[in-house]
Write a structure and sequence with these properties.
Strand content of chain A: under 5%
Order of helices and strands of chain B: HEHEHEHEEHEHEHEEEHEHH
CATH architecture of the largest domain in chain A: Orthogonal Bundle
Distance between the termini of chain B: 77 Å
Largest sheet of chain A: 2 strands, antiparallel
Number of domains of chain A: 2
Strand order of the largest sheet of chain A: 1-2
Radius of gyration of chain B: 24 Å
Radius of gyration of chain A: 24 Å
Distance between the termini of chain A: 52 Å
Helix content of chain B: 25-40%
CATH class of the largest domain in chain A: Mainly Alpha
Largest interface: A-B, 38 and 33 residues
Number of helices of chain A: 13
Structural class of chain B: alpha/beta
Helix content of chain A: over 70%
Structural class of chain A: mainly alpha
Order of helices and strands of chain A: HHHEEHHHHHHHHHH
Oligomer: heterodimer
Number of helices of chain B: 10
Number of strands of chain B: 11
Chain lengths: 301, 283
């Protein structure tokens, strides 16, 4: 009797193993298929134009005859909105995290953290609409610029979207710094402020960097906001108040009407590959930093 | 020996793959003209017309199922050539090359003009401009005119708003106003008629263009070459920025398809919906 249940248990165990293996396999396979699809649909554009023309061409006129497929202004636009949004979102996100983890009382923390995370639940189309209808006219009036739909507005909206990511992940990192480190610092006579900036931040820097990079990778791939708010001019911006056209906006606006398997279609997929490579680099970098600068252990009595 | 074996295996693999592909093709391109169903594909500009009229038609003829998809004029005509659609929506007339392809496949495409599209330049209501010439519009959209005062307007910079280059509305603008020259890269891009209206209504420097049916009180239409864009000027051919919209059928339509086209072209039936969705009806 004992013996048979033993076999049954083994079979059950094997079944569960196989089940989980296939679950894991499914998601990986789907990912591989998507990548394969992306490459096969995107790469044919390089039969039509050279790699240099594609990456460094200044003109994006995909439906003209003859067409131009230069995505240089699009790449610059994507980088510009991401960098400007990072300048806004990193201080806000990290300092909010520090406040929540170190300064705020437990009761306050219980309230503020969900509210910040709720920002992440706002659909991007809502944020885009807010930027278009409220922020754009305001910026235009307040700064007396030609149009409120510009790089700055888009960066601001993207910052709103990446703050929850940055804040939430860095807060976890800061919160998990061993209490001994903090106590030791305070015991040595450091003030709370010194402890935060000299001990806690360095100890959690890998988590904070990961948070920042994941937040930025969210910003660079975000589509709806930049489509609605960035203005959409395919030119290299001269100032942060110029309209720009990041890569996702271009793909979203044009894909629906691009002739299937035409040059334009392939060019949009190739733009998608570039975008994919960008986010991949961001994520690999985040992974690297998370491992490289990890705080390993703390010694206590 | 080993080599031939692997070769054979490879061949078999290729064979089974070929069979699989064939099966899929047959499944996917199964004859669309089943009794009581109509397939419509093509231009996203014509899509709302097809949707609205099909809805009314199906209410009157509950036995008939109409499936409609967008995908662009080119794709619609491609589907017509392949025989995978009963009706192809198109915002342009069929090209000679496409007609030839269709005839090679054994069908002669028949065009039906179903409505007219009329594109009107719009500005912020506070702008004092009333009329603009085609040449001035072109200069604005190529970036030559940068201030409204250069063409008799207020002293404000011009913010140029255009549509994504894949849209049917852009196509009309590109052809009729730009005469196929390029809109300058500094023009803002919006992805729909609604978004252009929204952007222009919020910006006193802006100029944009939309389909006549999307006009609302928050923006001000401009006359082009002293002609006001309206249903009347579109139909009599006076207004310069307009075009007919088509549905093509493979050969003269029969059965349900014929019935649907008749419904669509009828002044008291299909045509009365055209104005509601922003286009100019035929009558």
């Amino acid at each position: 009797m004992e013996y048979i249940t033993g076999i049954n248990r083994q079979i059950k165990e094997r079944m569960i193993r196989i089940f989980f293996f296939f679950v894991a396999l499914t998601s990986t396979t789907i990912l591989v298929f998507i990548m394969y699809f992306l490459l096969t649909e995107g790469l044919p554009i390089f039969n039509e134009i050279s790699v240099k023309e594609f990456f460094f061409g200044h003109y994006w006129y995909p439906t003209d005859d003859p067409p131009d497929f230069g995505i240089f202004p699009l790449i610059i636009a994507s980088i510009a909105v991401t960098v400007v949004s990072a300048v806004i979102s990193i201080p806000l996100g990290v300092f909010t995290a520090l406040y929540l983890a170190e300064v705020a009382s437990a009761g306050l923390r219980r309230w503020i953290k969900p509210v910040v995370e709720l920002l992440a639940a706002l659909p991007s189309v809502v944020i885009g609409f807010f930027g278009m209808v409220i922020v754009a006219p305001f910026l235009q009036e307040a700064l007396n610029i030609a149009t409120g739909l510009n790089l700055f507005n888009a960066s601001l909206m993207l910052a709103f979207m990446s703050i929850p990511t940055i804040c939430s992940i860095s807060e976890d990192a800061i919160y998990s710094v061993p209490a001994e480190l903090k106590e030791a610092s305070l015991a040595l006579g450091a003030t709370h402020c010194e402890t935060i900036f000299r001990v806690i931040v360095p100890a959690s820097i890998s988590g904070i960097c990961t948070a920042v990079i994941l937040g930025m990778s969210r910003a660079i791939g975000e589509t709806m906001v930049v489509l609605m708010v960035a203005g959409g001019a395919a030119m290299v911006p001269g100032s942060i108040f110029d309209p720009v056209r990041p890569m996702p906006a271009s793909i979203a606006a044009e894909m629906a009407e691009a002739p299937f398997r035409g040059e334009h279609y392939h060019a949009l997929f190739a733009t998608g590959i570039v975008l994919f490579v960008f986010t991949l680099i961001f994520n690999l970098f985040a992974d690297y930093i998370a491992n490289r600068y990890r705080q390993v252990g703390a010694s206590t009595l | 020996m080993d080599n031939t074996n692997t070769n054979r295996r490879k061949r078999m693999k290729q064979k089974s793959l070929a069979i699989f592909v064939l099966a899929m093709t047959i499944l996917l391109t199964a004859n669309p003209a089943l009794a009581g169903s109509i397939v419509i594909k093509g231009s996203t500009t014509v899509l709302p017309i097809a949707l609205k009229v099909a809805e009314a038609y199906m209410k009157q003829n509950p036995g008939i199922k109409i499936s409609i998809s967008g995908g662009g004029s080119g794709n619609g005509i491609k589907a017509l050539i392949d025989g995978s659609t009963d009706i192809a929506d198109s915002s342009r007339f069929i090209k000679e090359k496409e007609v030839k392809l269709a005839i090679d496949k054994g069908s002669y495409p028949v065009p039906f003009a179903v409505a007219y599209d009329c594109i009107v330049p719009i500005v912020h209501p506070s702008n004092s401009m009333i009329n603009i010439s085609l040449a001035q519009l072109k200069d604005i959209y190529t970036g030559k005119i940068k201030n409204w005062k250069n063409i008799g307007g207020p002293d404000r910079p011009v913010v140029v708003i255009s549509r994504d280059t894949s849209s049917g509305t852009y196509e009309v603008w590109h052809k009729k106003v730009m005469k196929k020259t390029r809109v300058f890269p500094g023009a803002l891009l919006q992805a729909s008629n609604g978004a252009v209206t929204q952007a222009v209504s919020k910006n006193k420097n802006a100029v944009g263009y939309i389909g006549l049916g999307y006009m609302n009180k928050e923006v001000k239409p401009l006359m082009v070459n002293d002609i006001k864009g309206s249903a009347e000027t579109t139909l009599n051919g006076m207004y310069p920025v307009s075009r007919p919209l088509f549905m093509f059928t493979p050969g003269w339509p029969e059965g349900d398809t014929m019935d649907f086209i008749n419904f669509l072209l009828h002044p008291q039936k299909g045509q009365k919906y055209i104005r509601d969705i922003g286009f100019v009806p035929l009558y």
